[in-house]
Amino acid sequence: MQTIHDADVQPDAARVFDWRFAELCRAGFTSDQAWCLASAPDVDIRVAERLLAEGCPPATAQRILL
């Protein structure tokens, strides 16, 4: 049974995932890579963006981050 508190948390989690996914796609990751990275809460989005900005290939950046 879902409580009111649980219902409040899920939409926030979904919004955070959507934001993380969009930022990673915008940075240059493929949809599949962005999905994997956005799903990992310990992945720092700004570090991911910086890796690509400094010329790291997306596949290599994904391996580094995960």
Total number of β-strand segments?
Answer: 0
The helical percent reads over 70%
Oligomer: single chain
- Proportion in β-strands: under 5%
Tally of alpha and pi helices: 4
Terminal Cα span: 34 Å
Major beta sheet summary: none
Q: Provide the residue-averaged pLDDT.
A: 90
Q: How many domains is the backbone divided into? A: 1
Q: Unreliable stretches, pLDDT < 50, 5 or more residues?
A: none
Name the helix and strand elements from N-terminus to C-terminus, one letter apiece: HHHH
How much is the radius of gyration in Å? 14 Å
Structural class: mainly alpha
What global shape is seen?
Answer: elongated
What does this structure look like?
With 66 residues, this protein is mostly helical. It has one domain. Helix content is 76%, strand content 0%. The protein contains four helices and no strands. The longest helix is centred in the first third of the chain and has 24 residues, at 4-27.
Topology, pairings included?
Blueprint: H1 4-27, H2 31-39, H3 45-53, H4 58-65
Helix pairs in contact: 1-2, 1-3, 3-4
Which tags fit this structure?
4 helices, elongated, mainly alpha
Q: Quick gist of this model?
A:
With 66 residues, the chain is mostly helical. The chain is built from four helices and no strands.
